[in-house]
Amino acid sequence: MSQNSNSEYVTNEVATITSSETGTKSNESSGITSGMQEVRDVNGVDLEKAKDEDVKAEMTKTQVILVFVGLCFGMFLAALDQTIVATVVPKIAFDFKDLDRIAWIGTSYLLTVSAFQPTYGKLSDIFGRKITFLMAILIFEIGSLLCGLSNSMTMIIISRAVAGVGGGGAITIIVSLLFLHLHQSTGSFREKLVRIDWLGTVMIAVSTVLILLALNWGGNEYAWNSALIIILLIIGMIGFILFGFVESHFALEPLAPIRLFKYHTVTVNLLVNIFHGMAFFSIVYFIPLFYQVVDGDNATNSGLKLLPFIL
């Protein structure tokens, strides 16, 4: 009887252990399956389904060529508008009898381009590249139309600024379309509006405008040590610092993730672009002015003399 009891006891223990192991494996299997389901359904999107949709969305060779050509034309127009008025700036200033604000014809466009480029990058992520690109082109064309209808220096400066709002967006979105493989955005229009970093958008736009105003006015309309220039520079720099703080601590979808600046390649490229822009646009806008005012050339001849530099 004792041996039988021990045998039954061992049998029950083995059954218990086996049952426990089976339950554990079942739970692990269930957990793995659940985890896989969570991965597939991350952010409410079935990744396998999204992959299938990407395959279905592949375009024909003809469509790719047409889209590429269209994007190239858009890039050409936006880039051309940065310097297209360089050779006719003196003529415009003489016709409007306003030489004091001659620099603002080019500055107004570049100012809004710089201020709105980061915003367009995030808007294209939220609303999609196509609709954002078309909106940017529409604003750019409206600004260009207003430039053609301008009858005063004030109107042409404002019109150039409007064109810059669209031109900056066109360049940003075209670059992302050509070099990045991005999925279509999802969610309702209300949900997309909530995702916009409104505070960051206002802060970076205002800070950029203040800095550029100080750099443009300094040494021209005001002395570098004047109170206005110093205040603009200080407020602009404080705005950039606060922008970085907001982006790193409060923004759910930041315009410029601070982690990007940890990479030396990104930081160095930004600095190179800043100094390149300072040198390039100074030459492009003021060399034609020298040719026309000092040498007496017309707009066509000054443009031809500048052509080797552009090429």
Automatic annotation (TrEMBL):
<dbReference type="InterPro" id="IPR020846">
    <property type="entry name" value="MFS_dom"/>
</dbReference>
<dbReference type="InterPro" id="IPR036259">
    <property type="entry name" value="MFS_trans_sf"/>
</dbReference>
<feature type="transmembrane region" description="Helical">
    <location>
        <begin position="157"/>
        <end position="182"/>
    </location>
</feature>
<feature type="region of interest" description="Disordered">
    <location>
        <begin position="1"/>
        <end position="33"/>
    </location>
</feature>
<keyword id="KW-1133">Transmembrane helix</keyword>
<feature type="transmembrane region" description="Helical">
    <location>
        <begin position="266"/>
        <end position="287"/>
    </location>
</feature>
<keyword id="KW-0812">Transmembrane</keyword>
<feature type="transmembrane region" description="Helical">
    <location>
        <begin position="194"/>
        <end position="217"/>
    </location>
</feature>
<keyword id="KW-0813">Transport</keyword>
<dbReference type="GO" id="GO:0005886">
    <property type="term" value="C:plasma membrane"/>
</dbReference>
<protein>
    <submittedName>
        <fullName>17929_t:CDS:1</fullName>
    </submittedName>
</protein>
<keyword id="KW-0472">Membrane</keyword>
<dbReference type="InterPro" id="IPR011701">
    <property type="entry name" value="MFS"/>
</dbReference>
<feature type="transmembrane region" description="Helical">
    <location>
        <begin position="223"/>
        <end position="246"/>
    </location>
</feature>
<feature type="domain" description="Major facilitator superfamily (MFS) profile">
    <location>
        <begin position="67"/>
        <end position="311"/>
    </location>
</feature>
<feature type="transmembrane region" description="Helical">
    <location>
        <begin position="64"/>
        <end position="89"/>
    </location>
</feature>
<dbReference type="Pfam" id="PF07690">
    <property type="entry name" value="MFS_1"/>
</dbReference>
<dbReference type="GO" id="GO:0022857">
    <property type="term" value="F:transmembrane transporter activity"/>
</dbReference>
<dbReference type="GO" id="GO:0012505">
    <property type="term" value="C:endomembrane system"/>
</dbReference>
<feature type="transmembrane region" description="Helical">
    <location>
        <begin position="132"/>
        <end position="151"/>
    </location>
</feature>
